[in-house]
Design brief:
Elements lengths: L1 H6 L3 E7 L2 E7 L4 E7 L4 E4 L5 E9 L2 E7 L4 E8 L2 E8 L2 E8 L2
Antiparallel strand pairs: 1-2, 2-3, 4-5, 5-6, 6-7, 7-8, 8-9
Length: 102
């Protein structure tokens, strides 16, 4: 199952309607959607199943997603043309993933 998950190419979609954002990530195995307003705290379920309080901010082309839980984690998403660079930081572990537009 892990090999299948690692080989799946996710589809990431960010939409905005007024002040409301929707961020959807879809793979062969799962679809996750979060809805939020910039700078406003909201509750979500992390990938590990933990319920956390999150806040997302935008500075230029960088979107920072802070998840307050145990442990706290941060995803910085940088939008550059047809590329999205996502950097997840949890404690002293950093994971970087690059998404390309089709």
């Amino acid at each position: 199952m892990r090999k299948l998950g690692n080989s799946a190419t996710p589809v990431v979609e960010l939409t905005k309607e007024g002040d409301d954002y929707t961020f959807t990530t879809t793979t062969m195995l799962k679809t996750t959607t979060i809805k939020f307003k910039l700078g406003e705290e909201f509750e979500e379920e992390r990938g590990d199943g933990a319920k956390v309080k999150s806040t997302i901010t935008l500075d230029g082309n960088k979107m920072t997603h802070v998840m307050k839980g145990d442990p706290e984690s941060t995803i910085t998403r940088e939008f550059n043309g047809d590329e999205l660079k996502a950097v997840l930081t949890v404690n002293d572990v950093v994971c970087t993933r690059i998404y390309k537009a089709e």
